[in-house]
Amino acid sequence: MTRTATATATVQTSSRPRAVILHGLMILSGAAGLAYEIVWTRMLGLSLGHELLAMLAVIAGFFAGLAAGSFLLDRPVSRSRWPQRWYAVLEIIIGLWAMVIPALAPLAVSLIGPDGSAAGRMTLTFLIPLLLMLPATAAMGGTLTAVDRMLEHGRPDHRHLGGLYAANTLGAVAGTLAATFLLVPTLGYQGSHYVLALINFVCAGLGLLACRNRLSTTTYKPLSTTPSASFIPNPSSFILTSCSFSKYRLLLTLLLTGTLGIGYEVMVIRVLEQVLPNTIYTFASALCVYLLGTAIGAALYQRFLVQREFKTTLSLLMQCLAGTCALCTLLLWQAPAVYNYLQQTFGRTFTGSIFTEMSLAGIAFVVPTLFMGAIFSHLTQAARHQTGGVGLAMGINTVGAALASPVFGILLLPAVGSKYSLLIVIGGYLLLAPFVSRRTHVPAYLTVILAALLIYSPGGEALVPIPEEGSLIAFREGPMASVAVIGDAHGNRSLRTNSFQQGGTRSRFPDLRQGHLPILLHPAPHDCLYLGIGAGITMQAAADHPNLSADGVELLPEILPLLGHFEPTPGRLTQNRSLHLTVGDARRYVRGTTRHYDVIIGDLFHPSRDGAASLYTIEHFAAVRTCLRNQGLFCQWLPLYQLDLPTLRLITRSFLQVFPDAQLLLCHNSVESPILGLVGRMNGAAYPTDLLATRAANPAPEVLGRVNLADDFQILGSFIADADQLRHFAGPGPLNTDDLPLVQFIAPRFTYSLAEPTAHRLFALLADLGPADPGRFLANPAEPTLRRFEDFAHARDLFLHAMAGPEGPERLKLLRNSALASPDFADAYMYMVSRVLPVVARDNPTLARAILNDLVIAHPDRPQAAGMLQQLRQH
Questions:
Q1: pTM of the entire predicted model
Q2: Which of 343, 481, 771, 784 has the highest CB neighbour count under 10 A?
Q3: With contact defined as beta carbons under 8 Å apart, do 390 and 148 qualify?
């Protein structure tokens, strides 16, 4: 063996431990970097709001910092003979600044304020996250260049970027899982920063240990212009495979592939949101699959393709990527059927549901991302030269990735829809293939065929579940959600946002009660605020109250043009001058507004939906309290049919921290979809027993009669617990805060599981609360009044048990006893007259006459039973 060969072998052998350590560093660094992105995006979103503009501001700030660091640090780090010192300093900067961000974030965001011009607020919304994260993100942008420089020493061909990128991306997968499933649920956002900072400090120390000596300078030979794929194994020099690309052509390709790759990710996730439950775990699952496929693709490139001819390889990879994107997009429209099959396969458990989401995301992501990871590694390796290139390539690609969200999410998706946006991605890759090489491979022809099939296939609206004999009335794909209005065979209309039902005409009765009840509990309301509009039926109740002005805040702008489909008469909500609709984030609105309200009503926010947990935190409840007037009242409605009792206890405990005199309402007497209302008031004054008579102005009696709120007992009888009962029910335990939003992580576990019937939770809740004591919330009630309330509560409980049981004699008996137990409880009476007794009269007229006679005696002021009894006697 020659001296040169011996030296080469020695250097290669000695570099193996270093390579293992450096690849391990990239895994740790990637894990911390992606975890930071998740934590910062969600933490700043709590203050900036969940509007699309605020979310884009945080993401754009993160990517801009990465790109800036990649650009600025590329050349000095690549030229340095001490890259390990650069790496250590960069990791230390990341860790130190990460520990400062939680303290700086509230101060920085407070600079935006409610005043000033729209342009000024927009500028600050984008500028503040950028500057807040810049020291850390810029340092992140230089770490890959530093590790690349550290690893090149002792490697004859310098072709290792695919392996480094694979390790870094694999670490990002670990960071996503750790941040979502472990760190934030356990330690909160602030505690997660300290753990991630510790990882940065460990990386800094390992980097110094892995490369303790000064590195020699490396002499690069110029790029070969011949089509040869050979290289010279010389420790001090290497020849890249031929690319004959100009610098600007190579960078343009990096820019476009960054935009198209993230554009594909954004579009696929937006389509899957119409099928998946959209919890915090949903996005994490899809992101993990995307990153894992990219990491595997980069590793396969490093193993099999790193020595192949540049242009031909790149063109083939582009064409294969276009073809797989087209095929996976075709499969995407079968997502509902595939999702149901996967649910049956993995089971309705938390773990099984996570596997279901990952598997469904894998159908759309795994194969295309393999080629994405290989293409990025191929392009970055070609961009590498003596004075840098790695950071420049990464920075350009990051800029392209940053452009994807506004280009596809804001511009293309609302304009052409998800299907044609994905076709643009496919076409972009197909156009890039001849841009890098004129040679056409078989995948190009297959892609054209698949794209043609895709054009004639149904789009995103095909994923909307349509009931039998129903129809899709309206469908809008917006930057934040897909919104649909669905009609059924009976003429009912419902609103659907992504995979969630948002109410509709079929639930008009409870929706209107949600709007009326809190307003009726205030003696003289003038201003009302609705946090969340949904189908708009709850807010329509405000139009029935004299001298009442109401504001409504809705996060999704796509909903507002569709509200007319749910109006009983045209313009009742949308053209009413006393009702004002605003697009915005509810949290940001109550923190920024200077207005004060007599009544604030929080809509039914599904606790498991990603982002909804922030509307159940102590900080949000406190912000709402500051918007109330002295006699103000806040009612937060809760869907018991969408949460379990532990989550309800957590929300109740947090609510009591801000409103210690809170009370609990039962919106309507349903066992299938019970709705609870936590009521907090600025004063703890008792309610008068003659509530309606003491109010300044009331809606017309027939209006309140349609929702069973025409008398005091129907209104005040809705209370099922006072503050002491709620404290006993909630018990000791953690609170839901902005720093530790436990609801966000606990509530989805109930959604993913096969839950017990809703009626069981309702009866367990009522049993735990115990009977309500009217003397605790009524002003000097007389003994007969207390007995009437007790009878009312007894009749309600009988009715609920009747509705929870099967049809038959036992239900009929419970319904009869409920209707006779209290002359003030109308639900059992009306249900018997309208639905039960017509059937009984047909099968057993004698029994029907007996029951009707009892109802006439018990409810002499209600004419329905008397009229039906007279008809039976005539026949």
A1: 0.91
A2: 481
A3: yes
